[in-house]
Queue: 3 jobs
Job 1
Amino acid sequence: MKSKPAPDFATARKRHGELVGQIRRHDVLYYQKAAPEITDAEYDGLMQELEALEKAHPELTTPDSPTQTVGAAPGAGFGKVRHSVPMLSLANAMEDQDVLDFLDRVRRFLALAESEQIEIVAEPKIDGLSCSLRYEGRRLLRAATRGDGTEGEDITANIRTLDDVPAQLPAGAPDVVEVRGEVYMRRDDFTA
């Protein structure tokens, strides 16, 4: 498949502005209003187009570009929580080469020989609510959404209603621990 030539700078700058506006709008709809208007695949397509423009014209990349940030600012309905360590998002791998490039980065980071095998595990993508659980003294202190990666929403009261999330960790657990993952509802539970 032959790639299209990069657009001239003026055209790229105009399209970049359009894409940034669209993506930010969809971020607010998805993260703050829980009312997405496009599919994940359509959103990923917008992000891929923006990434390609920024790769062709690096001067368009700014620190607040959607390619450099995650999520959206926390909504107004919840208290705010500042993450002790930024809560980032995983990148998508759409092509075989994306996975091979990732494995090359892992090899370099771990100083592994190119011939050394890396074992990986893949799971179906679960799209839920990114959540951080902070335990201190082995007790659940706080639960927060990812928000913009730096600041999220305090959802501690909501999380305490979930039977799968322990209010207290067993003896021997670290005094301070933060667990991050996805909160989701299985389809059969939703139907019930």
Job 2
Amino acid sequence: MAPRRRAAVLAAALLNVLPACSKSHDHGHEHAHEGEHAGAAEEEVPSLAITRWTERYELFVELPVPMSGKPVPYHAHVTRLSDFGAVTQGTFRVRFKTPASTAGEATQVGVKRPGIFVFEAPAPAAGTYSLEMSYEHEGQVDVFDCGRVTVADRPVAPGGEQAGGAITFLKESQWRIPFGTAWAQERLMAREIELAADVEPAAKDQLTVGAPTGGRFFHNPKLALAEGMQIKKGDVLGTIAPTVAGDDYSRLQSAVEEARLASEQTQREIARVEPLVKQGLLPERRLTDLRNELETQTARLKSAGGRLGRVDSPGGAGGLSIKSTIDGLISQVVVPNGEPVDAGAPLVRIGGTQHLWVRARFVAKPASLLVDPSPVALRLSSGERVPLDGLGA
């Protein structure tokens, strides 16, 4: 990316608006004020063109240089800044003000054409005044400070034509098409290079869940593991049903049978001894020892049965639970449901969402294009642009 530079940016629609309706070019004026200047002198008259703004409206007004005692024709163009459309109603006022009072005032109610207030009013006595104009609509008044203006006591000689021609962009034309104006602002200018990239979890936020022992990996049916699934810390991803083959499997079955037989034998012995203890023929200690032995054998039987059940049961019910130790998204399900795995084999890969890496690979570029580069934004496959300034990238 090229070095950042600062430059003033001006909306193109604002260019040449001011000279567009200057009376010095009235022969090319599109709205020509048909019938509005009946009886006016044919000779060219020096004119004023003023553009001002409030928070809600833009004013462009043109008028000849005021002469004491003579009518001043006004052509005021009022534009809404909310949609840059022409106003269609309202009241327009002009005031020539001195520090102490108002020397002259004119009011026009309603527009002649959309956006344009056309009227005449006599100029005050010769002198210099503060020219104030206002637009009122629905009880709200917007005041435009149009600066200082001099009222002459004799005709003013027209000034010379400016060198070069102007490209006119009249208000009537602007109102018919989408346009807008904006204040000049300082903005960053930099060349952007768009590169294809992959987004992946940072290394410290990646987790590979492995098999603690050999067996078959059964997915948790309540989750239906799939890439992109949100996982929370402690969620059970599935179970490992250990596989035992040959003699090992037989040994598990034998252990269950031995524990079961020993437990049954002790229960029978307790049933035989208990009446003798009640009759006083045997000490009570003998019965207590037998009951303790039965509890031990019952625990051995439960344990042996559980080990055998984890191997025999379909779906891995009762197997070794496999849990996630981080919050994140499943990036890969390595082992399909029910597939056999070896001890230590990867089962599921999870990526955290707290820290992400953006990895881009591209053909070498000229060094001049990569001076002091910085990441600006990501453009997702949906077209959405994600600025990186606020993400601490």
Job 3
Amino acid sequence: MPDDPGPTSVILGKRAVAGSGGSDVDQFIGRVDLPNDADQYLDGTGAFSVPQDKDWDFDATNVWTGTGSGFPSGNVGIGVLGSATTAKLDVNGTAGSLFLTMGINVLSAASTAVSVGLQSFANGASSANYGARNEATASGASANFGTYGNACNATNNNYSIYGEGCSSSSTNYAGYFNGNVTVTGTFSNPSDENLKSNIQPISNAAAILDALNPVAYEFTQDISPLNLPEGNQYGLIAQQLGDVLPELVVQNVHPAKYDSLGNEISPSFEYLSVRYTDLIPILIAGYQQQNFTMDEQSGIIQDQLQQLGSQAEVIADLQTQVENLQQQMASMLTVVQAMQTKTNNCCNDGSTGSLPAPTGATDGVKLMQNVPNPFDTNTRIDFILPSDANAVLELSDAQGRPLRRLVDGQMNAGSQSIVLDGSSLAPGTYFYTVYANGEMITKKMVKR
């Protein structure tokens, strides 16, 4: 095998040829040693010269034609076109002759319109197309970059790496990463209203969340082509999520891996993944629905508390009324007992302790209605005693509680008249009672 070319050399290609013992060895197809003069080019005789047009252009029989411009399919060209330094390497073939169809087009950074560091195209292959597949595997290196992009200083837009997946096949990836991915800047998804149609609210978010089954798990590490994270993980099982939200489950294809000659090293295989970011709107809608339900329940609870408060006030008022009635009944009982005592004692003769028998014909004690009634300040009370008697005339309030005695002592038979000075009495209802000869008569009066 020839020595490796130096830094001013270009390898035109390698191919595997049969070696001794049936093993294959790599052999250089050719090598070009470039001179230091960038204006020289290799002519058809193998010598370097400086023509007006400095393109390499080979026809189908690998003979340099010197046509000057353009890069026909199947040819290799390096040189200068106009004022912009360009280089082009096109390797074209069919699926039967070449496994992959690739293209590299490097345009000068001096271009005022567009500068492309590396532009690759892959199409027409029967198994897989890779726009770019780069590996950096140098052992002992402090850093390996399979692909490194840096775009800056453009007036409008800068794209360090741009990937685009077409929609003509079932599996399309603008980018596929087998391993960890870190983004130090913002990561966003298209959400412009102008890009959307059939916009509907999520009305059953709470039911959807109730149907999900989040789990803790660990990834199986013996699936060698996949660089899955180790340790505890938290998420959903795609098959279970597919029963609830099938649109959030994605069928993925891990690509096969090939060597430099197109031989398959590891086959492709399929697996399921979950669009976790699409769960965020459902979580938000579920949170809002839960808050709405809680607000409704809180309102119902507040209404019930107000009703309970009103009922408590009614109960307290009824209890107060009952207590007042109990007090009135106790007062009335006290009055009745007092009246009974007075009746029993009002007419004792003081010596025998017994009531004297009525003398002469009489109709009993009579009590007249006070005059005037209602009254403002004073009112007159008249009563008739059929015989001499120990009499009591008493004024009580509306609850039957005694206020004052107007008469208390021995009185002669006949008509009696008492003037009540009611100037100190509050407006309201009052009762006046006469006790005499074992009788008790009560009437009502009203103070205005």
